[in-house]
């Protein structure tokens, strides 16, 4: 019963993260801590994808896991990276007999680990990272241990992808709002120039664009200066019709 209570407490803590400012490190820390606490392992390390798609260390449980994880990233080879790339769990129940990942294997053995197990962080086929579980004794994870780790990893994966999607949408909305505001300012500036010089709106736009090119300034910056009547665009705002 004690384990069931700990699992419930873990998911209550995870639900509380949803009400806080989005911080991927908190989700990674939650996964590292509770996988090491609830599963029969001695340490764990979480890798998460950066915006460019590369992996980076996000959290560890047990300081001894730090060196093997860093070695894995430097060598670009290890159970976590393999699991992430193949989208499948990877087991190394006996690191001494393991033929893969020589740099990682040496670092893990030196840190006192005899086995490593990695699980991808997946949701709907999309991977956001991987978690590697370290054990000081060899042997495979039990079925229940394996299933529990997969459940923890899948839950965090879904949370991360959901929050990333929201953040991406908010960022896109901000960009669209900025673009709309810029467009409105350009239209206002065109109207000001057209009225002042008695030319068409299209001619006013060409004048403003040519001015921006000559001064090596952004069109939006010139438009804002026109609206504000800035001295920096005095030639455009002068009584003489500007020449494109």
From TrEMBL:
Residues 166-227 form the ANTAR domain. GO terms for molecular function: kinase activity; RNA binding. Coiled coil: none annotated. Keywords: Kinase, Transcription, Transcription regulation, Transferase. This is GAF and ANTAR domain-containing protein. The lineage of its organism: Bacteria, Bacillati, Actinomycetota, Actinomycetes, Pseudonocardiales.
């Amino acid at each position: 019963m004690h384990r069931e209570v700990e699992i419930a407490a873990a998911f209550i803590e995870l639900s509380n993260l949803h009400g806080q400012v989005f911080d991927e490190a908190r989700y990674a820390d939650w996964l590292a801590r509770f996988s090491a606490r609830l599963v029969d392992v001695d340490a764990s390390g979480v890798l998460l994808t950066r915006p460019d798609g590369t992996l980076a260390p996000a959290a560890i449980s047990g300081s001894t896991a730090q060196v093997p994880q860093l070695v894995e990233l430097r060598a670009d080879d290890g159970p976590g990276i393999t699991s992430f790339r193949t989208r499948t769990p990877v087991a190394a129940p006996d690191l001494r007999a393991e033929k893969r990942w020589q740099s990682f294997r040496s670092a893990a053995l030196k840190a006192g680990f005899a086995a490593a197990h990695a699980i991808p962080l997946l949701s709907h086929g999309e991977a956001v990272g991987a978690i590697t579980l370290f054990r000081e004794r060899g042997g495979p994870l039990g079925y229940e241990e394996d299933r529990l780790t997969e459940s923890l990893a899948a839950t965090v994966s879904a949370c991360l992808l959901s929050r990333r999607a929201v953040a991406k949408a908010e960022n896109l909305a901000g960009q669209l709002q900025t673009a709309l505001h810029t467009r409105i300012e350009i239209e206002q500036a065109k109207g000001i120039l057209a009225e002042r010089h008695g030319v068409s709106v299209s001619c006013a736009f060409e004048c403003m664009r040519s001015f921006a090119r000559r001064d090596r300034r952004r069109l939006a910056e010139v438009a804002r200066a026109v609206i504000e009547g800035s001295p920096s665009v005095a030639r455009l705002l002068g009584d003489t019709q500007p020449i494109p």
